[in-house]
Amino acid sequence: MADLDLNLLVALDALLREGSVARAAERLHLSAPAMSRTLTRIRDTLGDPVLVRAGRGLVPTPRALALQEQVREVVREATALLAPGTPTPPAQLTRTLTVRVNDGIIPLLGAALYQRAREEAPGLTLRFVAEGTEDVEALRDGDVDLDIGVQGALGPEIRVQRLGEDSFAVLVARTSPLARGRLTLARFAHAEFIVASRRGMTRNPLDALLERQGHVRRVTGVVPNLLAAAALVARTEAIAVVPSVFARSAAALMPLRMRAVPLETGAFIVAQAWHPRFDRDPAHVWLRGTVKALWAEMIRDATPVRP
């Protein structure tokens, strides 16, 4: 098997089809002398003349005739095996895709992605997993197909594609006095705050921004995720500062109002990351393209936040 040359099968197939060294050479874009040398190698390998002179032409030997259909089938299968893969239509995809994303993105982007999958790729199962250690190994090992969020240093081999920018907004209950009138910096700073922190931290960069303006805020509740923060705000007069994408979805699901933060908090970039071995995987291509398209639709359709 160490001396096996599959090109000999391709050449033999061409010789048997054409019955001529010259025409077989043209078929494979080779010179006639090169094809003649290949025929000699085929004869040596098979221990059979393969093609013999008959008048002005060549005719196959009985051994060659017996091998003709088998050689043709092997060449066809090898060609199909080594050819570039044919893209699988989304409707025919069957697979579980694991998406790592924080709870602030799932209510809007996750829901839209789920609905699009049901419409275009019903054989897919979407498994959303919470952010945690955000380790690169999960992407490398294939435990996570796609990571969506604010991306840190993930390693040079990880693909990162920018989805767009997001900013912060204030969530208040619709019945709260802070839902009416202009939300000034003074009213904002003197409100009670609910903070979402997986590690239970009471401080975040907002505190430093307020302190530079001469204000110190009061944190009256700390919860592990944004959905819990929104639920508490909806039933109290406390407020929460959350990403705008999440604020829009929370305001649609709960009795909340979304308001602009009365100081400059800056924007942040949201991106999706994956391992390059999935670059051409049909299900992964559909997933990445759909996520990017849905994010663009969300930003385009977003209504301006009022002060």
Overview of this structure, please?
The protein is of the alpha/beta class and 307 residues long. It contains eleven helices and twelve strands. The protein has helices at residues 6-18, 21-27, 32-46, 62-82, 106-120, 137-141, 185-189, 205-212, 226-234, 244-253, 282-301, and strands at residues 51-54, 57-60, 95-101, 124-129, 146-149, 159-166, 168-173, 192-196, 218-223, 240-243, 256-260, 268-274. The strands form four sheets. The chain has a five-stranded mixed β-sheet with strand order 4-3-5-12-6, with helices on one face. Strand 8 (192-196), helix 8 (205-212) and strand 9 form a beta-alpha-beta unit. The mean pLDDT is 89. InterPro entries: LysR-type_TF (IPR050389), LysR_HTH_N (IPR000847), LysR_subst-bd (IPR005119), WH-like_DNA-bd_sf (IPR036388), WH_DNA-bd_sf (IPR036390). Residues 4-61 form the HTH lysR-type domain. Belongs to the LysR transcriptional regulatory family. It holds the Pfam family LysR_substrate. Keywords: DNA-binding, Transcription, Transcription regulation.
H/E element order: HHHEEHEHEHEEEHEHEHEHEEH
Rounded to an integer in angstroms, the radius of gyration calculated over CA atoms is 32 Å
Strand content: 15-25%
Mean pLDDT: 89
Domain HTH lysR-type: 4-61
Pfam families: HTH_1, LysR_substrate
Family: Belongs to the LysR transcriptional regulatory family.
Keywords: DNA-binding, Transcription, Transcription regulation
Key phrases:
307 residues, alpha/beta, 5-stranded mixed sheet, 3-stranded antiparallel sheet, 11 helices, rod-shaped, DNA-binding, transcription
